[in-house]
Amino acid sequence: MNTRDGGRTLQTTATSLEVVETLRRMDGARVTELAAEMDLAPSTVHAHLTTLVDAEYVVKQGDVYQLSLQFLALGDYVRNRRNAYRIAESYTEQLAAETECRAVFAVEENGRGVYMYTFSGEHAVWTYSTVGKRFHLHQTAAGKAILSRLSDERITAIVDEWGLPAATENTITDADVLAEEISAVRDRGVSFNREEQLDGVKAVGVPVDGADGQVVGAFSVASPANRMTDERFEREIPEVLLGVANEFELENSLT
Q1: Own/partner pairs for 178-187, CB < 8 Å, 24+ apart?
Q2: How many Cα atoms are found within 13 Å in the side-chain-facing hemisphere of 211?
Q3: Among 94, 95, 117, which Cα is nearest to 106's?
Q4: Which of 117, 165, 167, 224 suits a disulfide with 105, CB 3.0-4.6 Å?
Q5: How many angstroms separate the first and last alpha carbons of the chain?
Q6: What percent of the chain has pLDDT over 70?
Q7: 108-144 b/e (C-beta count within 10 Å ≥ 16 → b)
Q8: What's the alpha-carbon Rg for the chain, to the nearest Å?
C-alpha cells in the first residue's frame, strides 16, 4: 500500500481510524449498525470500540457509541499550534465585520484546503465553510489564493492526486484553464470565485505568507452573487482583503 511518507501502515490502526470517521459520519451508532456500515464482523468492531472507549476517544451511552470530547482538545491544539493560526482568528472576524459578509481563514494540508476560522457578517450567507471541513482548492477563492503561492510542480501533484471535480457548472475542471487562472492570481494578488463552489455565491480571496516567505493560508470573503456588484467584487472587497492581509503579515512577522 502506498503511503504519503513511504513507510508501512498498520491495518489495525487504519481500521480504528475508520471506526472514528464512520462514527462521526453516522452521528453515533450501535455495534451492529457500525459493523454493517463498515462491512466488518461485529466482534471486530466491538474490539476496536472497546479500545477507543478505554483510551477515552469514544464514549458509550446505553448501547450507542459516540465520539468523545477528547477530540475537542485535540482540535484546539491543532488550530493553535502555530502562531499564525492563532492571530488569524481576529483578522477573520475583522473581515466579517468590515465587509458584512462571511469571512474565512483557510490553510492547505495534504493537497486540500481546511477551514480554520469562519465568521459571519450582518449580511452573510450560509456556505460550506464550516470549521474543520476540507475542500478542493480549485473550487474556492481561498483555495486558488493558496495555489498561487505554490510551485507549478506542487500544483500538478495536487491535481494528479485529487483531480478537478466540478461543484457547479462554473467550476474549473481543465488543468490548463486552472494554470491560466493561477497565473492571473499571481499577477494581481487576488483570487475570485465566480459561483464555482456554490451556485449563487461569489467570493474573493488573498494569500498570506509567513516570516519565511512560505504561504500560511488565505483569507476569503463570500457573499450572495446579487450583492456582489462589479465594483464591490472587483475593487472594494479586494482592497479590504489586501489591507487585512498586510496587517496580518506584519503582526505575524513581529511575533
Answers
A1: 178/138, 178/147, 179/152, 179/155, 181/144, 182/144, 182/147, 182/148, 182/155, 185/144, 185/145, 185/147, 185/148, 186/148
A2: 9
A3: 117
A4: 117
A5: 42
A6: 94
A7: beebbbbbbbbbbbeebbebebeeeeebbbbbbbbbb
A8: 20
Per-chain mean pLDDT for the chain: 91
Angstrom distance (rounded) from CA 190 to CA 13: 42
How many residues can be counted in the chain? Answer: 255
The model's pTM is 0.82
User: Once rounded to an integer, what is the mean pLDDT over residues 101-115?
Assistant: 95
Q: Alpha-carbon distance 229 to 231, whole Å?
A: 5
Decide if pLDDT at 184 tops 70: yes
Hey, which bits of 20-167 come out as E strands?
Answer: 58-61, 64-67, 102-109, 112-120, 134-135
C-alpha cell at 6: 513511504
Taking 3-state DSSP, the helix, strand and coil percentages for the chain, each rounded to the nearest 5, stand at 50, 20, 30
